[in-house]
Amino acid sequence: QKYSSLCPLCPVYKYQAIIFYEDRNFQGRHYECSSDSADLQSYFSRCNSIRVESDFWVLYERPNYRGYQYVLTRGEYPDYQRWMGYNDSIRSCRTYPYYRGGSYRMRVYERPDFGGQMMEFMDDCPSVYDRFRYRDIHSCNVMDGYWIMYDQPNYRGRQYFMRPGEYRRFSDWGSSSSTIGSFRRMRDFF
Predict the structure, then answer these.
(1) What residue stretches are annotated with the Beta/gamma crystallin 'Greek key' domain (predicted)?
(2) pLDDT for residue 23 is more than 80
(3) What does the alpha-carbon distance between residue 140 and residue 132 come to, in Å, rounded to a whole number?
(4) Counting CB atoms within 10 angstroms of each CB, which of 75, 78, 100, 117 has the fewest?
């Protein structure tokens, strides 16, 4: 395990959680981060590779946890395509501990405010249309576990991190569209 001080004058050493690199293959300037950060802009101008050493992280294309989301688990990502990135812009990040509960449960609805047809899921869904008969999910209630929604089938496309709570409309989970192609449980592995 690697340990590093975020401040060279501080005697307290913390476990490195994530390292952002400006260039591919872990080259160039880098920044070590061990907690949520609403604005990473002053630490690096672009991000082309990442090492995640603990927990899992939700990265955002814009400051203040906005824009496209990317969910990363422990591992190495030598270029932004490896985390399904659309570009080299990472401007904010949040960390979450792994979910230690045994059950996962989420209800999805065809209309806003939990209206219309509802279906409950406890496992991964590679094709929303095949299971739900709709391509659009307008609201959802996550009861147990962390989930990731994707705008395309087979866990591809834009990602939306879902933690327990009520999402009355698709904008509540950061989407500009109700189209969801697939979703899966956020676990220690993919």
Answers:
(1) 16-54, 55-97, 104-144, 145-187
(2) yes
(3) 13
(4) 100
